[in-house]
Design a protein that fits this description.
The structure is a homodimer of 254-residue chains.
Chain A lengths: L5 H15 L1 E3 H8 L3 H13 L4 E3 L2 E3 L8 H6 L2 H13 L6 E4 L3 H9 L6 E5 L2 H8 L4 E5 L2 E4 L4 E2 L2 H8 L3 E6 L3 E2 L5 E3 L2 H13 E7 L11 E2 L6 E6 L5 H10 L3 E3 L1
Parallel strand pairs in A: 4-5, 4-9, 5-6, 9-12, 12-14, 14-15
Antiparallel strand pairs in A: 1-3, 2-3, 7-8, 10-11, 11-13
Chain A binds a DNA duplex (30 and 30 nucleotides) through helix 3.
Chain lengths: 254, 254
Amino acid sequence: MTRPLAINRLNQILQTLHDTGSVSVGALADQFDVSKETIRRDLKQLAEQGRVSLVHGGATVGIPAEPSLSRREAENATGKAAIGRKAASLVKDGMVILIDSGSTTLFLAEALTTREHLTVMTNSLPIALTLCRTPGVKTIMLGGEIHANDEASFGVDTLESLKHFNVDLAFVGAGGISDEGEFTDYTRLAAEQRHAMLNTGRKAYVLADHTKFERKTPVNIAPSDRIAGLIVDYLPSGQISAAAAQSRWPIMLA
Amino acid sequence: MTRPLAINRLNQILQTLHDTGSVSVGALADQFDVSKETIRRDLKQLAEQGRVSLVHGGATVGIPAEPSLSRREAENATGKAAIGRKAASLVKDGMVILIDSGSTTLFLAEALTTREHLTVMTNSLPIALTLCRTPGVKTIMLGGEIHANDEASFGVDTLESLKHFNVDLAFVGAGGISDEGEFTDYTRLAAEQRHAMLNTGRKAYVLADHTKFERKTPVNIAPSDRIAGLIVDYLPSGQISAAAAQSRWPIMLA
DNA sequence: CATATAAAGTCACAAAATATCACATTGAGC
DNA sequence: GCTCAATGTGATATTTTGTGACTTTATATG
């Protein structure tokens, strides 16, 4: 008996998902006449590739419950503000820096509003708006399709723009940090863009508050040798610290 | 027994909420054939994410979209709002449009927040921010250096991005209108960019309220044959009207 | 203004569906 | 036959949903 190829099942699942926006484990198990466990393994695999998002009972396209920007701003505002100030202290007059979108990086932008000579590139609308109102700061917005949840541009256009630039420092966020010390993100696209941002800077710093430590988001951000430090509000667990030591970048406490 | 995915229920609740402005627990329970308690748990969850506001008996949209201070305090806000609504009436579902920066065009963006299927390109940060919060509107930000006065991108990068696109309608502002019916601008760069914007649209409309009629700013915007109309709040003087007639585009009163 | 009352909310618990994990089975390729 | 990866199975854990007792809120009414 020859078994139907699993790859076909995966492709059909993706097809259905894109047609209808969501799939349920039970329905797929019936449709392909396999056990629910098999379907779960399929979906898990697709989720690890960042192609679907798992939800109870099935999977959907897009991000089911990533908290909105305004929500994330409110969460642990003090810790994020401290991280922002710490990051700002690394920025010297006259530098050209890149700031990623996110609630933590928005605090960095706010901490930079007292500066006199800076050039800042960002993909975040609120950060651009904040900094363009600061005299003495030259602001460059990275164009592209705007993602509502981040209020920032993501996509081919943004990635393309990034290629044209080289900056002194890049400040990049992350969706979460895995136990192994890998930075993770909600979508494949975001992960790729953050990786590109890390490599755009001569040095790059990752900003993450302690709420990220426990959070494992589906896609890994590929490592970069430009990383010069991880800026946090609390010291992370031993595992993450060990991973940091191994990667030879310091953990900087705000 | 397989259950319908809870995530779909949540999404539909959000959709209904966006369409009608509010939802009631009882109606949703009937609609999805689940208990009221389940609906309450759904709404509570959405409220925790900041996506809805709970009220006794149901929920309403999270952010009531009150016009920002700068918008209300804008000079001749009523006239500009009328122009914005008039311009919005020219936009059909599914169109791809380009919106220039400016206070008048911001009112156009505001008037488009009820739409379902639109793609909007803009160089204005506030317009991008307004529209990216509107579900169903795909927003593309034109990148480049941000000018503090306009809170919008201007420059070589922006001009370059414009070349890659073709849109159904372009809505462009102007610094002023000369007696001869020429559109004028404050800087050479802005004038050149507005000219490029006019030519990016299959059709282009110029938005100008009556405070622009008397104003003669230093640089002329080169004429374009894509111009399909000038949208105003009051009819301009005879000279401007005559020039419009000669250029064969209509003056549209909001 | 106090009170009645119906509707809505809260909470704790139980039932059902789903998820996870370890281990068994199957079949293809060597 | 042996190995390995994919799949199935069943025990256990977790999540979601429903139910009913009880509390709170909105609103009308005297």
